[in-house]
Structures are given as C-alpha cells and as structure tokens.
Amino acid sequence: MVRPPGVSRREFLSVGVAVGGGLLLGFDLPAPPPSAFEPNAFIRVDRDGRVTLIMHKVEMGQGTYTSMSMLLAEELEVDLADVRLEHAPPDDARYAEPLFGVQETGGSTSVRGNWEPLRRAGAAARSLLVAAAAATWNVDPASCHAARGTVIHGPTNRSLGYGALVDKAATLRVPSRVPLKDPKDFKLIGTPAKRVDAPAKVDGTAQFGIDVRLPDMKVATLAACPVFGGRLASVDDARAKAIPGVRQIIRLDDAVAVVADHMWAAKQGLAALDIRWDDGPNAQVGTADIVRALADASLKPGVVARDDGDAVQAMAGAARKIEAVYELPFLAHATLEPVNCTVHVRPDGCDLWLGTQVPTFTQTAAAKLTGLPRAKVRVHNHLLGGGFGRRLEVDFVVRAVQIAQQVTGPVKVVWTREEDIQHDMYRPYYYDRIAAGLDAGGKPVAWTHRVTGSSIMARVTSELFPKNLRVIRAVGLHQLIAGMKGLDTDAVEGAAEPPYELPNIRVEYVRQEPPGIPTAFWRGVGPTHSIFVVESFIDELAAAAGGEGGVGTAAGATQRARGRVAARVRELYRPGRRGRRVAGRRRARHPRGLRRRLRHDRQSGHGQSADGGRHRVRDHGRPVRRDHDQRWARRTAQFQRLPHAADQRSAGDRSPSRVERRGAGRRGRARHVVRDAGGDQCDLRGYGNADPQAPGQGPAAHGKLSVRAPA
C-alpha cells in the first residue's frame, strides 16, 4: 500500500484485509520527544465484530492485560469485554517499548509507554469504521458516531456493527491525524474494571508456561553445581535409569538433567543420581569473603553520581558528624511459578513455549545456541506466575535449549523450587557508607553516600541489549555516558536524589562484583535498597538531633507523615514469638535464608542469613542513646534469627564504642550488638526470646547504653 501524501512514516497507518476476513491495522504512531521510540502494534477487527489486541506486553499479575485493553477500547468505542488478546511475536522493530528500545515488560513502563500509542491506534480504527459506514449510507461522516462496537447515523438512527464494515474500511485512505478524546469524555479510563485475566485464573483455564502440554512431550528437571563456577565431575546414573518413566540422562558442563515421561519420574530419577561436583575456583569463597571485599572497595573513591555544593568542606566544619554502614543482602526473586521453558529443536526451526518478559532476548538466545536464523525461532508467550525481574533474564532459556538439543521431540524443562531459588539471579549485595554533618541546631549541612555493589546495568547492556540507535534513543545519551564512566544509574537511584534539603551532597558508586554470583534487577530495582538506606539514616539523624524537627523542615514533615503510617503498621504488626497470631492471622515463620554451598565464617562477625540486612551507626559527637522521649517503643523488640557463635560470648568486660544494628532487608529481623574497639561483639538480646535488658545479658545492664528498636 502506498503511503498517503503528507503523512509521515511514523503516522502512516497500514490497513488490509486479514487472512480469513477482517480488518487488520498495523500502525506507526507519532513520535514523542527524541529520547523515546514509539512502538508499532496491530489491531484486528474480524467480520463477526470481534476486536483483537495483539498484545506486546505480558501479564504477571500487574493488570497489564486489563490496562492495555482499556486504552484501546476507550478510543475504539467498544466494551472492555469485547477485546480479545493474542501475544505478539518477538519483534523489536514493531513492538519495542518506547522507554527501553526493546520489546519488554518491566520497569513499570507499560501504561506510561503506551498511554498515547494504543489510544491513537483505537482512534484511527474508529475513524476508519465510521468513514466506512458513512460511505455505505452516502452521508457525511460528521453525522455518524461510534458506540459499543457499532456506527450510528444520528439523523436516521441507522446502525451497522463493526464486523459489517471491515471490508469497506480496508479500502479507505487513512486519515493523517485523528483527535483523541478529551479526558472528561472517558468512559473506561479512570473507572473500576474487572480484570480480564481473572475468570480464566479462577476456572483453571489460564495457561502459564508451566501448563504447556504438547503431543509426545517429555518433561525434564535438573541439578546444577551448587557452587557458583563449579562443574560436573562425574555422575553414576545406574539407579536413575531403573526408575519407570525415566528416558534419558543429559550431562552438561555444570549440570545434569533427567528426561522422563512426567515430572514425578524426572524428580525421582534426579534424586537417584550419584553426582560428584568439581566446586571450582569458588570452593572456599564464603559470605565473609564477599563482604570483606565490598568493605575494602567501599573505602576507595567511586564514580560521582551527584556532587552539589562542597560536601567535604561542609563536613569538616560541621558541629557533629554521624556515619553509618548499611549492608543489604543478596535476594532471590522466588516467583510463585518456578522458571520453566518448553523447547522443540528441529533441523529447520525451534519453538519455545514459556512466560517471558523479553521475547526478543529469548529468541536471540535460542537462535545463537541452535545456529538458526532468528526468523526460524518462534516464541509462544504465556501468562507469568510472577516476574519481578526474574523473567527479564534468559539464563533458564539457554539451559532449556541446551537440554532440548539432545532430546528428540518437545521437552518441558522445569526447575524444582529448590533449584529455582538456589540458581536465581540475585539482587546484589550492597554495602553503603553514608555520613552526615549536623550544625549546632541538628540540621544536616553535609551529606555523603557511597554505594558499593555489583553493576546490573553493565551486564544487561553488554550481554542482552542490542547495540543500535533505537536503544540509544530510548534510554538516552546520559545513560550511555554514565555507562562509559562506570556509573550504574540503577544502583544509585533513590540515593542520588533524596527528598531532603541537603545543600552539600556527594553520592558515589563503586563497582565490586562478587565472585561468580549472578545479579539482576529485583522487584523495585535500585530503590529497594537505596530508599531503605536513606530513610533509615534520616531516622538516625532525627534521633541524634533529639527529635524529628532537628533534621530540617522537609525531613521533619516527612518524619511526621511516616510516623502516622508507622503507627498504623504497628497496630497490625508487633514483633514477638514465632507463630504468634497477629490481626487474626498466623504469622509465617521466617525462612532461614538461601542455602548455597558458598560457606561463611561464623567467627567473622558477619554471619547473617541471606535475607537479613544490617547496618552500623557511629556518632562522633556523643554516645548514641535511644530513650523513650524520642518516641521509640517502651518494649524492646525480640527478633528471631539463626544462632551465632559470637552471640554466646560474655559482654561483661566490653566497653562499647559504637552501636551496630543489623536489620532485616525485607524479613523484619534485626539484632543489636555492641562492638568495642577490638572488634569483638556481643548480643544485647541473647538468642531466642531472652530479655535484652535482663541483668548480665549485655552492656545495657551496665547502665551505659540503652538501645531500643522501634515497635
């Protein structure tokens, strides 16, 4: 079809009759600012009037199926229930997310990136259908309007359904510009809507990747080396092969898989294997080693993310200086649906059935492994049983294709829950050094924050993202420059722009990669760690200043707002014994953390479960004291945690010089310890439910220090 004169390439809306009958609209939409790239999309209106949105986003519980359909239906003038969905094939050229430059679902971009494109698509389709009806009746299109999937001629009240108009509409010229609705005229947008994916999830017909069933399909599960960087040394499969239903044992460089008729046989076969691993270069690496390397790296200057005023000079002239070190652990995604991927590799092509946030990355990874052209690799996307960034990765796709290359016919590779957690792509372990200088009135006049950790941005941009102009335009030149400087903008997001009045602020980033441990975006990405650090430190400054007002006007207002929220939270949740009933529900026991065979030294003072964060606060002005008049709880919180050898040491002869509070990253656990100049530590609370203020159980018994946790 020839593009109409006067219409730009991006504004051109191609119209054709779909195979089997119907109106097929593929649209290129007006470009936003130069930093973004508008995606293409397709709408199909069948002769029976059914509207299909070929969906370029995936549903993982966030409501994308509903929100995208609402945007389209609003301008197309159809009921939400009349919009059907089909997953789009992998194609960055047509379906790239304008905020990233690739076809993906993540970063909370679906509505932001498609707010105008999908509405323009619906408006253009509506305009064509109205014009087709007007031509059929030989009337002025201005005398017609669309409503509920029909076009109505106002003066005569004649009407035609969309299905009856698709053939005529396919022959019409596309208008160069179609106005969008005024927000005051919205009928769907901004109103409550039933989730379009809910009925299928309720009646069990919803299809997730793990639900795929194909003729002659086998099922496989696997075990990878439990130490990062390790390899498979040997495996005795005699007992596994004797289990009914087991068909094949597949050996990979660092894993072994069992292929069977069904999952139960595959799991039994895997359990029957006698596997010997070569733990490799990381055999002796432990948590303490990783933390020590991060701590050492955090002492070095980093890449500057923000530098306003003169933080060094202001810090030197401050009346008091308070420093803190925050450590936040590796965290797994732990999606409800374990990662899985069904693959059928053939000489002439490859098909993959899975739930993925990145269809084109998946296609590229499979094509690279099989040596097939990308056009020969088809990706069949499904509902996701949780994503949180886990399915932005293709590591499990690569593994599934490696297994499928040795299997005749389709094979569904399913990770057990244990393997899924143990071989996740983790949120980085962050080590933050933060300091503030206070004036005589307790207001911050200087602020420094150095973030040390793995760089997710460096890995994904080098390994996953294509190197093309579309991506550069989408992410922006500033991201490219930051990457060249070694700055991970995600790691410092939330740290580089704290919402407080800080006249002198310097924020830096130091890249320190853990040996062999893969890191990835996790849920709310960088701010999940930086907001916790900044807000916790503001609390420390408020306490040190003798109340919320001492941290400045902005900080004080924020403190008061947070205080109101916290009061409500405290009503619903009270620290206490495991299994205690809270608000009518039985609180779940805290998990014991990731059980990786990377060992940690229990004598190092860094022994901590993998799901608990920690921090230390040092006040150079006076001993830190938490008293009741500072609105801290009167009762001392009692937190459960793993036993620690250092906890059993006597604290009778310790002279405390700083307070260390090790708090939970997301599990709600914490412990308070006092560290003396020699580096030894003692527990202020003792293990279990002992009262930390009981005689002889810690420095609080000396009357020198009172440490209390917020209730």
Largest sheet: 9 strands, mixed
Average of pLDDT: 78
Extended strand count: 28
Task: Flag low-confidence runs.
Answer: 1-14, 17-21, 27-40, 572-611, 621-711
Q: What is the rounded distance between the termini? A: 68 Å
- Please state roughly what percent of the residues sit in beta strands, choosing from under 5%, 5-15%, 15-25%, 25-35%, 35-45% or over 45%: 15-25%
The tally of structural domains comes to 4
CATH class categorisation of the largest domain? Alpha Beta
Task: Provide the CATH superfamily of the largest domain.
Answer: Aldehyde oxidase/xanthine dehydrogenase, molybdopterin binding domain
CATH topology-level fold name of the largest domain: Aldehyde Oxidoreductase, domain 4
Share of residues in helices: 25-40%
Cα-atom Rg, whole angstroms? 30 Å
Architecture per CATH nomenclature, i.e. the level-2 architecture of the largest domain: 2-Layer Sandwich
What would you call the structural class? alpha+beta
Order of strands side by side in the largest beta sheet? 14-22-21-20-15-25-26-27-28
Please report the number of helical segments.
Answer: 17
The best one-word shape is flat
